[in-house]
Design goal:
Alpha-Beta Plaits, four-stranded antiparallel sheet, 14 strands, disordered C terminus
Length: about 350
């Protein structure tokens, strides 16, 4: 049956209660603690971001919420259903878009969706109508009879999202939704996520290393590091907190920028992070009343020729660096995928009605 949840209960949730509740969630792998008693709520209809460096606990959190792993202690619920005690009910409520695209290249767009729709046991007539509706939603109707293997990366990612929407989930987990996409495709995916959230009031959790995605899409953001939630607020409030801690974000253009100059700046106790934008420009996050003068004096002692200095407003990436000490761009996500790798097997193409 394709009944997701009691209608009365769903209406109560949509009136503003938390769709997702996480309380003191802990997950251990032997002596390693992946999650250390994290707690947070996600409101119904909210786009919620989970940010954190590699190994922080983001993927473990999503695996538990999507019933693919069990916590060592603590509780989590979706739509009022405990993810351990009522895992079958939870699975009916959720859709997952993993970083790994789950599609069959030698099947057409429609055949792919038909295959996955049958796994949900959606009645064929309803499934056919839903496939047409979803393909129209992501502007892929004219490609419905084209093999997915010929699609661009952006088109494949839209198909990946549509696949997760076949069971009309109340909650959608998006793992790195724009990873590897060109700017235009990234914009299209972001617009689609906003449209989905606005028109269907789908509750969405996004994990990403792309700060632009988090900044533009998320109503609230939780930053996780070493298995703990180190910050949880709106993007604007997180940036304001950095500004209020006597922290400066400086961009220096140094005509004769050398490795020695960069290393000298990095060695300063007042400097938290340094990144080099190009051959002459560096961006740094520094704390303390005398940080600005200390940095400038250090550059001059190294005979650096400063051509311009900008005192920038903090970005979400600056917040991330400030709280975790990790460079987002160096945080390749070596994680257990949300969805199990499909085993290789031959599959005859079925006629789509």
């Amino acid at each position: 049956m394709n009944v997701l949840i009691d209608q009365k209960q769903m209406e109560e949730l949509k009136q503003g209660d938390a769709m997702i509740k996480v309380e003191n969630l802990t997950k251990k792998f032997g002596d390693f603690t992946a999650l250390d008693g994290i707690s947070f709520d996600v409101k119904t209809g909210e786009i919620f971001g989970l940010l954190g460096p590699n190994g922080a606990g983001k993927s473990t959190t999503l695996r538990i919420l999507s019933t693919l792993a069990r916590p060592t202690s603590g509780t989590a619920s979706i739509g009022g259903f405990d993810v351990v005690k009522s895992d079958n009910q939870v699975r009916k409520l959720i859709g997952i878009v993993s970083e790994k695209m789950i599609m069959y290249d030698r099947l057409t767009a429609r055949e792919n969706l038909w295959f996955f729709g049958n796994l949900f046991e959606i009645p064929h007539r309803e499934l056919s109508e839903r496939i047409d509706e979803l393909l129209e939603l992501v502007k892929l109707t004219k490609f419905k009879n084209t093999m997915v293997g010929t699609f661009s990366t952006g088109m494949r990612q839209r198909m990946n999202v549509v696949r997760a929407l076949l069971n009309m989930p109340e909650v959608l987990f998006l793992d790195e939704p724009t990873l590897g996409l060109d700017p235009q495709s990234s914009v299209e995916i972001r617009e689609f996520i906003r449209k989905l959230n606005r028109e269907r009031r789908t509750t969405i959790i996004i994990t990403t290393h792309t700060m632009l995605d988090a900044d533009m899409l998320c109503d609230r953001i939780a930053i996780i590091d070493h298995g703990k939630v180190v910050a949880l607020d709106t993007s604007a409030n997180l940036k304001r907190k950095i500004s209020g801690e006597n922290t400066a974000v400086l961009k220096l253009d140094i005509a004769n920028l050398t490795l020695n100059i960069t290393e000298s700046i990095k060695s300063l106790t007042c400097v938290q992070t340094v990144s080099q934008d190009n051959l002459t420009q560096i961006r740094l996050l520094a704390r303390g009343e005398d940080a600005f003068d200390t940095v400038i004096d250090t550059v001059r002692r190294q005979n650096g020729r400063i051509t311009s200095i900008e005192n920038l407003q903090p970005t979400l990436e600056d917040v991330f660096l400030h709280l975790t000490g990790h460079d987002v761009r160096d945080s390749a996500d070596q994680k257990i995928p949300l969805e199990r790798h499909r085993r290789g097997f031959g599959m005859a193409r079925k006629r789509v009605r």
